[in-house]
């Protein structure tokens, strides 16, 4: 399946992280989500009911990213993938990438983060 729906560069302010400074000061998190979905039916029908509404997906991601702080990006990504996969039967696979642009670690980089892919069972 090569059809995809993507939401790239979503930015959220949150207090996630394993270091105390991250929980106190917070930071911006950048989230990219890619959904493998068969888009043929929506392409023919022109009906939103025949696809996955990316506005709704954004709201699911926002609720998790701006919600209760957690230690690990891995945990956030897992929660996002599980929520999307459990809410949308049309989704075959969910890829979630979360980036911290400015974590409290010394060095020069564009960002650090994780990416997971979960198949909808």
From TrEMBL:
It catalyses: 7,8-dihydroneopterin = 7,8-dihydromonapterin; 7,8-dihydroneopterin = 6-hydroxymethyl-7,8-dihydropterin + glycolaldehyde. It is an enzyme of class 4 (lyase). Keywords: Folate biosynthesis, Lyase. The keyword Lyase applies. Signal peptide: none annotated. Residues 5-118 form the Dihydroneopterin aldolase/epimerase domain. Its EC number is 4.1.2.25. The keyword Lipid biosynthesis does not apply. PANTHER family: DIHYDRONEOPTERIN ALDOLASE 1-RELATED. NCBIfam families: folB, folB_dom. Belongs to the DHNA family. This is 7,8-dihydroneopterin aldolase. The lineage of its organism: Bacteria, Bacillati, Bacillota, Bacilli, Bacillales. The gene is folB.
């Amino acid at each position: 399946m090569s059809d995809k729906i993507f939401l790239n560069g979503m930015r959220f302010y949150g207090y996630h992280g394993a270091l105390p400074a991250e929980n106190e000061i917070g930071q911006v998190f950048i989230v990219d989500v890619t959904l493998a979905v068969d888009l043929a039916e929506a392409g023919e029908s022109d009906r939103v009911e025949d696809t996955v509404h990316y506005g709704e997906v954004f709201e699911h991601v926002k609720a998790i990213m701006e919600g209760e702080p957690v230690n690990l990006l891995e945990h956030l990504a897992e929660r996002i993938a599980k929520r999307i996969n459990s809410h949308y039967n049309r989704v075959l696979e969910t890829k979630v990438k979360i980036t911290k642009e400015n974590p409290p670690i010394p060095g020069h980089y564009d960002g650090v983060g994780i990416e997971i892919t979960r198949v909808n069972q």
